[in-house]
Amino acid sequence: MSSSTTPRSMTAGARNILRSNDSASLWNYTVAPGWSMKEAEILRKALMKFGVGNWSKIIESNCLVGKTNAQMNLQTQRMLGQQSTAEFAGLHIDPRVIGQKNSLIQGEHIRRKNGCIVNTGAKLTRDEIRRKIAENKEMYAIPEEEWGVIELPLPEDPQLLLEARRSEKIRLELELKNVQRQIAMLRRSGRRFDDGGSESPKTEQDEDEREEVIEDQPSGKRPRIEA
Q1: Is the dihedral of CA 84, 171, 47, 27 positive or negative?
Q2: DSSP 3-state of 43
Q3: ∠ Cα 60 64 70 (to 5°)
Q4: Which residues, including other chains, have CB under 8 Å from residue 193's CB and lie 6 or more apart?
Q5: What angle do CA 85, 12, 77 make, to 5 degrees?
Q6: How many CA atoms lie within 13 A of 146 on its CB side?
Q7: Taking CA 158 as the corner, what is the angle to CA 78 and CA 160, rounded to the nearest 5 degrees?
Q8: pLDDT value for 19
Q9: Cα angle vertex 46, ends 88, 128, to 5°?
Q10: Residue-wise pLDDT tens for the chain (227 aa)?
Q11: Cβ atoms within 10 Å, residue 99
Q12: Which residues are within 8 A (CB) of 92 and not within 5 positions of it... i.e. 6 or more apart?
């Protein structure tokens, strides 16, 4: 099959899925940082099976151990070739069909970042989003008899799943602890101002607590706390 062949995607009830023998150009996209092509392909099948944005179901399936909602959303944007995913929310689609279509869109008004079309117009209203979802369902939705039989891989090593769950539990506990401490600090800082608007001097204990919050924050996610 030549590289100019278009994807075998049709409208309304057709099989809107890219096959392994489609043109190689249809698979030309970059994975997000921290993703392998194998993981991106698993996410593609998971989106087809569970629908765009159903991250909790994907996580519960254990097909992508350790991936967060934000990471999956970012990789979905890259496969779709566009920043906005709201117009596909809940739809069982092959994201690469839309990605191939978006890759062909040209024009001075089109802006891209990491290969994705960036939103430049006004924010869509809820009615507009619902209308787009209905249109996209009509054009790209995969029949249930197809997505219902998709099988997703499980972790090869069950120990990896257990370790990922433990790490996620620790991360969430640290985030909760830090949020609670920051709330307590904000409440104390509110009491430092007297009726004249002057700020009471900070105590050594306040500085120690501020440092403690920063040290407890997971690596790469330290909060910016104003002194």
Answers
A1: positive
A2: helix
A3: 85
A4: 199, 200
A5: 15
A6: 16
A7: 55
A8: 47
A9: 5
A10: 444 444 444 444 444 555 444 443 343 567 888 899 999 999 999 999 999 999 999 999 989 988 899 999 999 999 999 999 999 999 999 999 999 999 998 888 888 888 889 888 888 899 999 999 999 999 999 999 999 999 998 876 667 667 777 777 788 888 899 999 999 888 888 766 554 555 555 555 555 555 554 444 444 455 555 54
A11: 25
A12: 47, 48, 49, 50, 51, 141, 142, 144, 147
Amino acid at 202: K
Residue 5 burial (CB count, 10 A):
12
Structure tokens given for 160: 């990896």
The single-letter code of the amino acid at 34 is G
Q: Where do the DSSP E strands lie in the chain? A: 112-113, 116-117
